[in-house]
Design goal:
The structure holds two protein chains of two kinds. Chain A contains eight helices and 22 strands. In chain A, helix 5 crosses helix 6. Classes of the chains: A alpha+beta, B alpha+beta.
């Protein structure tokens, strides 16, 4: 269970190599073992240059996908996981765990403690999950709170030292690199016994506990007879516990109002010490009924120093917060659109912001717009072929608003106008973006009085809630739209 | 090289990192390892700069110190540097320990004979156990981090040399119980415990109290290498291969600890598990893999020890923890997971595979885990991806693909959907809900629509074809799926012929279930739209793949129409590729006309040559031979002359290959009849040959050129009548015949072989005279006898006789030529020697050991040959 090497590569389309190795680290003692374990199927770790080239090719990130290349485009070359085989130096380096996020490619090669031919299934390779944790850890370290390139460079420069702490010999000790950074800084503190490895020091100061619940609501609305609309709430509970003592115990209870929607698919942070079986088994896979467990959801845990996600959940609320339809008809160079949105009466009508984005893909630039909105303002981004309907902070009393009119387009030129592989012909969507503070769609809340803290001093407890839209689509009901299997089960 | 500044070092290290091999090959690379070690003690360089030098040595020890001796020396030097550090806090101690460990482990230097190992190991163990090593090892504040580092170093050494710490188990347990840092000690103990168990099991020894012996190896005393030596031959996987594989090989099953040992072992494992919550999640996962591996198959160690951890692990979404849980599941199966537990685990895995809070790579890995789920009672064949039995359609609902998914997610989910469709078919359609198959069809149609987009990136097209391939792969037996797929693909081709390379690739990879109908519809699609358009080259590429003996007239019609538009070299070659395909398929009628027309009409000389070549092949080679000559099909011709490229393909077939002789020839007993001498050749067949042609060449000009012998087929083990080779001597003289064989192999190659030369003896030329008409044989002979002189010559010689006497000699060698016989003492022999010589013998008054022979011939040159022949006869009897 170890890594042979790890790389960070920035993806730079348009440059000759299309990328640069920003960081790499090899583990020679692990490599030594790989040679023994892999036997004749052993392929050594290449130098950075050849690795970069092979990886970008395999990930289709070189700028040359004009021609059909069998080793990449063949129909039998199927990748169903983020694990690749790279052709380097006459052999195939496998398994290479790699993914692209924010223009950065994260890659590493785990040790496989057996022969590679035939390839063992990934599930049998212990190093695979460790590879993912290492890469996720690096990703979190680089991007959490990072604002610009200078900060990114600073963090990249810290990586060699951090990995010397967190992964000195290729075996990952802690995926939380911020911890390793702190442990370098905390080095002079004497550690008492039974200090958890995931908690570098102890907090000194005023005790306080902060809990925030963020719900994201997704929706796919079709306004069609034979296709069901879908929507789902995804919640994340984030905690920051500033408490004295080595192992303070905290229990947080999440509660629902009487008509609240039960929480399902609950995943908890590893610091949670025990879980009620009702929490473990409450799942969106099952048909909902009235007997569903509706809380309170108790989470006893020993908090780490840093802010962490105590749990994630999903929920199926009875109605979407905003229900709407979008009708678009093509008439030669112009399209005729009608949009109607209705806020459900149970939803708090007090937005931080609310807007509807109506993009027009695979068309020319907008040349003319003739639209009427019953409420709010309409902004036109001609070159981007985009309309933004700014609804603002509140829906009107009627809770219902509409937009209708025509949009005319100029000639299509491939370089500038947005391409989309879904929105072909009449297939089109509008996407809602909104945020409501101090509100959750499920009704879920953390009662200050229900928070139990077993530590010295009475902590100050603060709670926050918000609802954010995420992937909230309303599809043109006058044309085919992509559906999920769930939408077909009316 | 003298001392370098910090900047110079940074530059040097940068150059090294860019390409270590290139740097080490340059003159600069020679001293890098040595310079690095000496620079560590330089007072000019900052600590930070030294740390970066050490970091390099952690990554590239093999380049810096390429052999064991150099590694040993480097480790010694690093240890010297370490002890020479002043007692104040230093950032160098930790990397120095890591570097010395790396140098020894990666450089193959670790062992009882290595001085550096003998220094490093006690030092590490001393640090790990928190002993006071004196002021040289830094201030107290550094002890704790150094203790953890020492544990890590020991663990790496134990990984590379299993059994190294077998003697320290008791000590490590003791430390874990006291104030030691929990995580490094736990992981070290778990690894050492697991390795010891494996080695002892292989040696069929028990734990021998290793777990309780708490003694420290005495400082400076000898290290116990016994277990490491035993373990040395078998580097141990830290994680088991999946699932419970190689039970025998790992040998764990044979270890049966005594009750006391079992209790100690249980206590040690429980101790590790109980404090595991203090470990980081990734370390917890390692601990579980190690302990699961250690206890698997160990008698008297029920895995219930793990049970208290399971619920906690099931609740998290942490990838490593869930993965470790699956490892435990695979290792212990029903012993640890009841059917209900299994169902719960599967549900958690299913929801984790689609949970919106988790990133895509995690989803994909969990999907993989679902299709490779270690079931308690698996039904299907092992090693194949399959949906677990408990994962019914209901559980899968959220895991089905949609067009909105990322390509990898789409393919992974599509695989699941295909598995569902396969099951669905077995269960018969229920008719209510949308059936998975209908959904599959819609999805594929959507993918094709996207692939048809003109401006779309190639990845979209690739995805469409990958999905089609996956579906065919899983559902090849379902015509209800394949038929719409076939027609959908045909429509896709109509919409975007530029996808031709993808179609060709797909046809190459799928079986006949889709391949056959797809070929037919694509052929139809192409030939039904003749004429000139920009898609012509794609049409020709497709036709070259799909053209066969079916509806050749339509294909030829298309080609005739297309020929006029094939103005450039590339198009002409594409056109000729189609002709080639037709040629292979055995289409003759009409094709010859087309090829002739092309040979005249094409603008490019290369194209004309090519067409002519094909025409010649078509006109001269029979069907099967043509097929072999043209196959296997070539890739698109290279940019040089396509004739050259073509030649590479079938030159081998059209050219005659030199080969070892497939048959053996020998000259059989002659039958002196007729008007010319005829050799009877016996054939021994070594390999099957077809269309054999034997060619003979006479050395010198003694005989007229010999005709070839043709044999249609020779097979080993099948009797072959003798081959008759008529000779036409110009002079009656013996000679040798050179023999060559030209033949076809069963593979269709034409081969050529030289056979050993065949001797033609003087006697092989003998022919009898036609019998005298009136029976006056004596008179006939005398007439011949007299006619030899005066032109010829007469001679007498003594012919020795063997024990059988004259009668046997005559009957054996001269029987057909005897004119007058008075057995057993007198014979008159007349031999005709073609072309027109004669040899007359009188063998009279034979004695016991020989017979005097009077001999006449009309040809002087025959005399010595006849003499030799007669003298040699007795020996030949």
């Amino acid at each position: 269970m170890a890594q042979r090497a790890v790389w960070l590569i920035s993806h730079e389309p348009g440059t000759p190599l299309c990328g640069t190795v920003r960081f790499s680290r090899r583990y020679p003692t692990v490599e030594k073992r790989a040679k023994v374990f892999n036997g004749t199927s052993y392929v050594p770790i290449p130098e950075d240059g050849p690795f970069l080239k092979a990886l970008l090719f395999e990930l289709r990130l070189l700028d040359d996908d004009k021609d059909f290349v069998a080793s990449r485009d063949s129909c039998s070359h199927i990748n169903k996981t983020s694990v690749y085989g790279l052709l380097v130096g006459g052999g195939e380096l496998w398994p290479v765990v790699a993914f692209l996020k924010n223009n950065m490619i994260y890659a590493c090669v785990p040790l496989v403690e057996q022969t590679l031919s035939p390839r063992p299934p990934l599930i049998s390779i212990s190093g695979i999950s460790q590879s993912f944790e290492l890469l996720f850890g690096i990703q979190d370290f680089l991007y959490l709170g990072q604002k610009n390139d200078t900060e990114l460079n600073t963090k990249l420069n810290q990586l060699p030292d951090l990995l010397l702490q967190a992964c000195p010999f290729g075996t990952l000790l802690d995926a939380n690199l911020q911890n390793s950074l702190d442990s370098i800084n905390f080095a002079s503190v004497t550690h008492p016994q039974k200090q958890p490895a995931w908690k570098v020091g102890t907090y000194k100061g005023k005790p306080q506990v902060s809990i925030s619940i963020t719900e994201k609501v997704k929706s796919m609305q079709y306004d069609k007879q034979d296709i069901a609309d879908t929507w789902q709430v995804v919640g994340a509970v984030t905690c920051k516990c500033d408490l004295e003592g080595i192992m303070p115990n905290v229990t947080i209870s999440l509660s629902l109002p009487t008509n609240g929607s039960p929480l399902q698919d609950i995943l908890v942070h590893p610091c949670v010490t025990s879980l009620d079986s009702a929490i473990l088994t409450s799942s969106s896979i099952d048909a909902m009924d009235d007997s569903a467990f509706s809380g309170p959801y108790k989470f006893p845990f020993t908090p780490p120093l840093e802010s962490f996600n105590l749990c994630y959940y999903t929920s199926q609320v009875p109605v979407p917060p905003i229900l709407g339809f979008y009708q678009m008809k093509e008439e030669e160079i112009q399209v005729k659109i009608t949009v109607n949105l209705k806020l459900h009466e149970s939803v708090k009508n007090n937005f931080e912001f609310c807007e509807a984005r109506i993009p027009f893909y695979n068309r020319g630039p907008i040349t003319h717009v003739e639209c009427k909105v019953s409420f709010g303002q309409l902004e036109v981004f001609r070159e981007k072929s985009l309309l933004i309907w700014i609804i603002g902070q509140k829906f009107p009393k009627s809770m219902e608003i509409s937009l209708s009119g025509t949009v005319t387009f100029g000639a299509k030129s491939h370089e500038k106008q947005p391409f989309d592989e879904i929105c072909i012909g009449g297939t089109a969507y509008l996407k809602l973006h909104f945020r409501i503070l101090d509100y959750t769609l499920t009704g879920c809340y953390a009662d200050q009085h229900s928070v139990q803290v077993f530590a010295s001093g009475k902590p100050k407890i603060s709670t926050h809630r918000k609802l954010i839209s995420s992937d909230y689509y309303i599809w043109n009901s006058k044309a085919p739209a992509p559906v999920t299997y769930g939408s077909l089960l009316l | 090289m003298g001392p370098l500044s910090r900047e110079a070092w940074a530059q040097r290290l940068g150059a090294f990192r860019t390409s270590p091999s290139a740097f080490m090959a340059s003159p600069e690379g020679e001293d890098l390892g040595r310079d690095l070690l000496s620079e560590l003690r330089s007072e000019k360089l900052s600590e930070q700069a030294k740390v970066s030098l050490l970091a390099l040595s952690l990554e590239y020890p093999a380049q810096l110190w390429p052999d064991a001796a150099a590694a040993e020396a480097a480790a010694t030097s690093l240890l010297d540097t370490l002890v020479l550090l002043p007692p104040r806090p230093s950032a160098l101690r930790r990397p120095l320990l890591l570097a010395a460990t790396t140098a020894l482990a990666a450089g193959d230097a670790l062992g009882p004979t290595s001085g550096a190992s003998r220094r490093l190991l006690p030092l590490l163990l001393g640090l790990a156990s928190g002993r006071d090593l004196g002021r040289g090892f830094g201030p107290a504040s550094e002890q704790r981090p150094l203790q953890a580092t020492a544990c890590e170093c020991l663990r790496e050494l134990e990984s590379c040399k299993p059994g190294l710490l077998g003697g320290c188990l008791g000590l490590l347990r003791g430390l874990l119980g006291q104030e030691g840092p929990v995580q490094p000690l736990s992981l070290l103990l778990a690894l050492a415990l697991r390795n010891t168990l494996v080695i002892q099991a292989r040696a069929r020894a028990g734990l021998q109290g290793l777990l309780v012996a708490g003694d420290m190896p005495t400082a400076g005393g000898p290290w116990n290498w016994a277990l490491a030596e035993e373990g040395d031959a078998h580097l141990q996987p830290q994680a088991p291969s999946w699932p419970a594989a190689e039970e025998e090989e790992c040998g764990l099953a044979v270890l049966e600890p005594s009750p006391e040992e079992a209790r100690e072992l249980r206590a040690a494992v429980a101790q590790l598990l109980d404090s595991s919550y203090l470990l980081t999640p990734v370390a917890q996962a390692q601990l579980l893999w190690l302990l699961g591996w250690a206890l698997r198959g160990l008698r008297g160690q029920p895995p219930v020890l793990f049970k208290p951890q399971l619920v906690r692990l099931l609740g998290t979404a942490q990838l490593t923890l869930l993965h470790a849980l699956l490892a435990l599941k695979a290792a212990f199966g029903e012993a640890l997971f009841t059917a209900q537990d299994e169902a719960l685990l599967l549900r958690r895995l299913t929801l984790a595979a689609q949970h919106p809070a988790l990133p895509l790579p995690t989803h994909l890995f969990y999907l993989h885990c679902l299709l490779n789920f270690p079931e308690n009672w698996p039904l299907g064949p092992t090693g194949e991806e399959a949906a677990p039995l408990l994962l019914g359609p209901r559980l899968c609902r959220g895991l089905l693909p949609s067009l909105l998914h990322d390509p990898m997610a789409l393919l992974a989910r599509l695989h699941l959907l295909c598995l569902l469709c396969a099951e669905d078919e077995e269960k018969e359609e229920k008719g209510q809900d949308w059936s998975p198959r209908q959904y599959l069809e819609e999805l594929l149609a959507g993918l094709r629509q996207r692939a048809a987009l003109d401006a779309g990136p190639r990845a979209l097209a690739t995805l469409c074809f990958q999905a089609s391939y996956l579906v065919v792969h899983c559902l090849a037996t379902q015509p209800a799926v394949l038929t719409p797929l076939t027609h959908g693909l045909a429509r896709l081709y109509r919409a975007r012929p530029a996808l031709a390379p993808h179609f060709v690739d797909l046809l190459d990879r799928v079986g006949p279930e889709l391949g056959e109908p797809l070929r037919a519809v694509l052929r139809q699609e192409v030939v039904s739209r003749p004429g000139r358009d920009e898609a012509l080259r794609w049409h020709l590429q497709i036709l070259a793949k799909v053209a066969d003996g079916n509806t050749p007239s339509a294909t030829l019609g298309f080609l005739r129409a297309a020929a006029a538009h094939c103005t450039d070299w590339g198009l002409q070659q594409a056109l000729l590729q189609v002709c080639r395909a037709l040629l292979r398929a055995g289409v003759g009628e009409g094709l010859a006309d087309l090829l002739q027309a092309l040979a005249r009409q094409l603008e490019d000389p290369d194209g004309r040559d090519h067409a002519r070549l094909y025409y010649i092949l078509l006109a001269h080679l029979a069907g099967p031979k043509l097929g072999v000559a043209l196959g296997p099909s070539l890739a698109a011709p290279a940019l040089t002359s396509s004739l050259v490229a073509e030649n590479q393909g079938f030159a081998a077939v059209l050219m005659v290959q030199e080969a070892p002789a497939p048959i053996r020839l020998s000259v059989g007993p002659r039958q002196a009849v007729g008007t010319v001498p005829v050799l009877r050749l016996h054939v021994e067949v070594l390999e099957p040959v077809y269309s054999l042609e034997l060619r003979f060449r006479v050395e010198g000009q003694l005989y007229a050129p010999l005709g070839a012998i043709h044999v249609p087929c020779l097979l080993p083990g099948r009797p072959c009548p003798p081959l008759l080779l008529p000779l036409q001597p110009r002079r009656p003289a013996p000679t040798q015949l050179g023999v060559r064989a030209l033949y076809a192999t069963p593979a269709g190659l034409t081969c050529h072989a030289h056979l050993p030369p065949l001797p033609v003896n003087f006697a092989d030329l003998f022919l009898p005279f036609p019998q005298a008409p009136d029976g006056d044989k004596r008179g006939f002979f005398e007439e011949l006898w007299d006619s030899c002189l005066p032109k010829g010559t007469e001679s007498r010689l003594w012919c020795p006789l063997g024990p059988q006497g004259l009668e046997a000699l005559v009957s054996c060698h001269l029987e057909p030529f005897v004119v007058v016989a008075q057995p057993p003492t007198s014979y008159h022999v007349a031999i005709r020697l073609p072309p027109d010589s004669r040899l007359l013998l009188r063998l009279e008054a034979a004695q016991a050991d020989g017979v005097p022979v009077a001999l006449r011939t009309d040809d002087w040159a025959v005399l010595p040959l006849a003499g030799d022949y007669l003298r040699g006869l007795s020996a030949a009897v």
